[in-house]
Amino acid sequence: MKLVFAAVLAGLAVTGCTKAESKPKAEASKAPPVNKNPYPSTYKAYPGQPTAITNVTIYDGEGGRIERGTLLFRDGKVERVGTEAAPEGYAVIDGTGKWATPGIIDVHSHLGNYPSPGVDAHSDGNEATSPVRAEVWAEHSVWPQDPGFSRALANGGVTTLQVLPGSANLFGGRSVTLKNVYARTAQGMKFPGAPYGLKMACGENPKRVYGGRNQMPATRVGNMALNRQTWIRAADYKRKLDKGEVVLRDLQLETLAGVLAGEILVHNHCYRADEMAQVIDMAKEFGYTVSTFHHAVEAYKVADLLAANKICAAMWSDWWGFKMESYDAVNENIPLVHAAGGCAITHSDDSGGIQRLYQETAKALADGRRMGLQISDEVAWTWLAINPAKALGIEALTGSFKAGKMADVVLWNGNPLSVYTRPDKVWIDGALMFDAADPRKRPVSDFELGQPGEGDVK
């Protein structure tokens, strides 16, 4: 009996020793990496040829002007801007009496999400089923056959545009930046390397939509409270991701965590000055930045605050008064923001307006001059070129005539700030996409092929 008991004790001792000497358990599995670009751009530039535009007035997109200049581009890139003669090996276009500018960039469009024809079956911009819909992506409802794209190109000289979700929600979802070329898929139009944006909205729209359904938010205080609650959830989700914890994927919180990480840019629909100021403070509370306030009818009241925080304002020239928060407008809004040292932008938010952004800029410029703000034409062109490029995070790629940048070029048949002027030719990445003198160079969507009026640009 004693021998048996001794054997049992020995066995326990060996077991205990084995446990003590065993290696610690492996750490819990970390979360697998998330593919942050599951719908990558498949855009490929159309073929072009080395081109020289000579004897032309050039606005370089960053406020510079060259008279009787020469613009060279080849292999899809700007090669040189100056006054030297064109070298051999280039197709030479005489620009006498004409202007060359970088292609217009519209930071606020709904083309593709609210396409033409404007019928309910095409209404895909607002997922108005909850005030927080950060999980939706605008590109997933972009219809690449929208006839509006070709109108924006041929009538408006627009070469790049950001397509945003609507403003029914506090968090409307991700935006997408597109090159203005037709493709079979939205991915074929996606601007390579452009960061995503997050559409947010403050003010009347969210409280009207959801207050009418007897749910939060029904007031501006509700707007702010629900915004902050949502950012608290997002910050907690990001902390877990940063620690490598295994979490159930949440598309909504992934987008918001991307904002907090500085990977996704915030584009905030906001009219009133007081609300812009509150959003700036909320962004500081949660550690993100606002790229651009859109519409920003009262930006002139806080122009210094916007400049100090390096926030762009995308504005109309004189569209106002259609609701209470758009009432206290001034036609000098854009030039006043510019004069305060801010990043001023002319935007459309409209399938017709996108075709006339250069005229909208001319109106705002004239209003500024009437009040004594002497801003030159070439500097005003920054409102359509380098400033929107900055707002979209693509200023290193496009938005001005610098060597190595994309050759997104518009040749205008006259002064581009005149109501009598229209695009003569438009190049995207050095490829001639529109030529007013050549019907074969008038882009037509698949949807329009074979229909009455095919190819008409109106």
Radius of gyration: 27 Å
State the shape.
globular
- Largest beta-sheet details: 8 strands, mixed
- Average of per-residue pLDDT values: 93
Total number of helical segments? Answer: 11
Classification by helices and strands? alpha/beta
CATH class term of the domain at 103-399: Alpha Beta
Indicate the CATH architecture of the domain at 103-399.
Alpha-Beta Barrel
Name of the CATH superfamily of the domain at 103-399: Metal-dependent hydrolases
Distance between the termini: 106 Å
Q: Roughly how much helix do the residues carry, as a percent range?
A: 25-40%
Order of helices and strands: HEEEEEEHEEEHHHEHEHEHEHHHEEE
Oligomerization: single chain
**What is the number of strand segments?**
16
Task: Describe the overall structure.
This protein is of the alpha/beta class and about 450 residues long. The protein has a domain at about 105-400: Alpha-Beta Barrel (TIM Barrel). The chain is built from eleven helices and 16 strands. The protein has helices at about 1-20, 150-155, 205-210, 220-240, 250-260, 275-285, 305-310, 335-340, 355-370, 375-380, 385-390, and strands spanning about 50-60, 65-75, 75-80, 90-95, 100, 105-110, 160-165, 170-180, 195-200, 265-270, 290-295, 310-315, 345, 410, 425-430, 430-435. The strands form two sheets. Strands 1, 2, 3, 4, 5, 14, 15 and 16 form an eight-stranded mixed sheet that branches. It has an eight-stranded mixed sheet with strand order 6-7-8-9-10-11-12-13, with helices on both faces. Helix 4 (about 220-240) packs across helix 5. The longest helix has 23 residues, at about 220-240. It is globular.
